[in-house]
Amino acid sequence: MSDQSLFSIFFSAMVVNNFTLAMFLGLCPFMGVSARVETGLRMGLANIFVLVLTASAAWFLNTYILESAPYLRIISFIIVIASLVQIVEMAVKKLSPVLFRQLGIFLPLMTTNCAILGLAIFQTNRGYGFLQGVTFAIGAGLGLTLALVLMASIRESVEFSDVPGIAKGTGLVLIIAGTLSMAFMGFAGLL
Amino acid sequence: MRTTSPTEDFVRGIWKENPVLVHMLGLCPALAVTNSVANALAMSGATFFVMSCSSVLVSTCKRFIPHEVRISAYILVIATFVTLADMLLQAYAPVQHKELGAFIALIVVNCMILGRQETFSAKNNPFRSLLDAFGTGIGFTIALVMMGGFREILGTGSFLGYSLFGPSFEPWVIMVLPAGGFLTLGFILLAMGYIEHRKKAKTGKVAEVLS
């Protein structure tokens, strides 16, 4: 078991090793749904929820089941994530149809979001306990949300500026992301 | 559905429909592991293996997979081969295995592989699916090695570990850091956009003259 303090895990996952900007996890939603601040924020919140559930499930699997069969790790993680996402989808649909409509396609797509599987694997590799895992998940989720919202706000203002024709689209988004990533490197000295 | 020739299946993925540079699929590995050419090669090799095997298996078994659970079935097939690739790399290329770390397991959620199963292997015979997987795999390799090359040459002044410019070269460290990944892909896309733009302008002019 790792002996990192909860605060350092949280802070490191959120800004220093930001999942999107420093570790390139969860890039699909980062490129896909970062056109509006509102959708970005909602996507981020849904991500935090699924991440926390995954971290708990991964801890449970690691402690009680996978000890005797570590080679099944990847397969069992992806099945658990797929079923978790399905259950969350059904629960949200039943409990709050409004939220379900707002999240739309992003909820089922979360199964193939590398941030979720990445979290489960990093958590296992670093040997986090239950509380550490959940803290890691919350920090990573907040970091994703932060990156999404920052990106969306920049893209909203870039829309009104005069951009050369060839730079419209993904190329520009990637260069903005690079600049953001450089800005986040400034946090590296904190821990 | 439009029918295509086997050659077309193979060639398509290499450049015209390059998974990374045109369709923007599989971006996570393309950016995360391309800080050196060796890592890019190991990653593309693993992805190539996983994609070819799962394409063949999916297209062979497509009749037995119920439509409702097909995505889960594809993911299971892919996860199985990723586990195999993980073990193979650990056994034969332990250095690369350590460098790539969690990103080998993350091949499972590479949308490019799942996308090829859903759009191609589920509808075509094993041979055509294998050709398609080869083409797309080569396209992925080209994109990754290109990025890895740019980043390694600019960031450390070497290629595959061999120094290119001698000791007077001041390495451009940012290129091997995460920010460099975003910037490299961004500039490659800008260059491709520019070439496309030039082509269009040329053909546009020809059309004008003709009319």
Q: Your description of this structure?
A:
The complex is a heterodimer of chains A (191) and B (211). The mean pLDDT of chain A is 86. Helices cover 72% and strands 0% of the residues of chain A. By secondary structure, chain A is mainly α. The two termini of chain A are 20 Å apart. Chain A has one domain. Chain B is mostly helical. Chain B has one domain. Chain B is 69% helix and 2% strand. Chain B is built from nine helices and two strands, in the order H-H-H-H-H-H-H-H-E-E-H. Chain B has a two-stranded antiparallel ribbon. In chain B, strand 1 and strand 2 form a beta hairpin. The longest helix of chain B has 33 residues. Chain B starts with 5 loop residues before the first helix and ends with a helix. The model of chain B has no long low-confidence stretch (mean pLDDT 86).
What structural keywords apply?
heterodimer, A: 9 helices, B: mainly alpha, 9 helices
When the domains of chain B are counted, the total is: 1
Head-to-tail CA distance between termini of chain B: 35 Å
Mean pLDDT of chain A: 86
Helix-strand sequence of chain A: HHHHHHHHH
- Identify the overall geometry of chain B: globular
Tally of structural domains of chain A: 1
* Percent of residues in beta strands of chain B: under 5%
Tally of individual helices of chain B = 9
Global geometry of chain A: globular
DSSP summary, beta strand count of chain B: 2
Helix content of chain A: over 70%
Q: Can you tell me the residue ranges of chain B where pLDDT is under 50 for at least 5 consecutive residues?
A: none
- Largest sheet, spatial ordering of strands of chain B: 1-2
How much β-strand is present in the residues of chain A? under 5%
